[in-house]
């Protein structure tokens, strides 16, 4: 829901930084993989309840996620790079929830499991539509720079990161935050499924 505005804010500084990195010869896929490795460090950090360090790792991962796209556009984006980026993003998101479950299994495991269920819904509805949109040659003018059809919703990337930040800052409220975000994921999945279904049928809702 907020991605269109957050992307507009962060793109200019990311583009400037990407131009500097481009002169070093650093590739977009290298940035993607490096950011993913740093992001996976959140699992043991959260398990150990080192929430401040986990938050830094999340921030570095998101920085890399923004930089790799800008680098790719400077050098020429590839389907392989776009594929790597989206797959590792989803793995990273799920890893964070697993880390919170490990931090306090007795309290966090159940809401974490439901939130991962919610992620399955938002992720599958997002990617399935992108596949069929590509087959039909559909484009999304709201996110024209994306390497695939970016189907919006209430729970997008910006909202996801906002909840992760809140969970790190207020880990004692993880349960409440997880249930609230699960609800947003359910609504997002429902609207994507309905909207995507009728769009692909060539109907308006």
TrEMBL record:
Q: Which InterPro entries match?
A: CDP-OH_P_trans, CDP-OH_PTrfase_TM_dom, CDP_ALCOHOL_P_TRANSF_CS
From which organism does this entry originate? Saccharospirillum salsuginis
Q: Which Pfam family, any one of them, does this sequence belong to? A: CDP-OH_P_transf
* Keyword terms: Membrane, Transferase, Transmembrane, Transmembrane helix
Q: What is this protein called?
A: Membrane protein
One GO CC annotation: membrane
Superkingdom: Bacteria
Q: Which GO terms describe its biological process?
A: phospholipid biosynthetic process
């Amino acid at each position: 829901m907020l991605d269109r505005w957050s992307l507009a804010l962060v793109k200019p500084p990311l583009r400037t930084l990407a131009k500097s990195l481009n002169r070093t010869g650093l590739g977009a896929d290298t940035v993607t993989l490096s950011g993913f490795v740093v992001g996976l460090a959140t699992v043991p950090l959260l398990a150990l309840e080192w929430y401040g360090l986990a938050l830094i790792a999340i921030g570095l991962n998101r920085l890399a996620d923004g930089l790799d796209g800008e680098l790719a556009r400077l050098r020429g984006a590839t389907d392989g790079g776009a594929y790597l980026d989206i797959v590792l993003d989803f793995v990273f998101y799920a890893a964070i929830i697993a880390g919170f479950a490990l931090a306090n299994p007795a309290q966090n495991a159940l809401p974490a499991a439901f939130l991962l269920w919610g992620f399955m819904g938002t992720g599958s509805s997002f990617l399935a539509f992108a596949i069929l949109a590509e087959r039909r040659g559909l484009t999304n003018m709201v996110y024209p720079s994306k390497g695939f059809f970016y189907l919006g919703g209430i729970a997008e990337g910006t909202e996801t990161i906002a909840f992760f930040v809140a969970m790190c800052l207020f880990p004692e409220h993880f349960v409440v935050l997880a249930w609230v975000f699960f609800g947003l994921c359910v609504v997002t999945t429902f609207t994507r499924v309905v909207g995507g279904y009728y769009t692909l049928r060539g109907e308006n809702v």
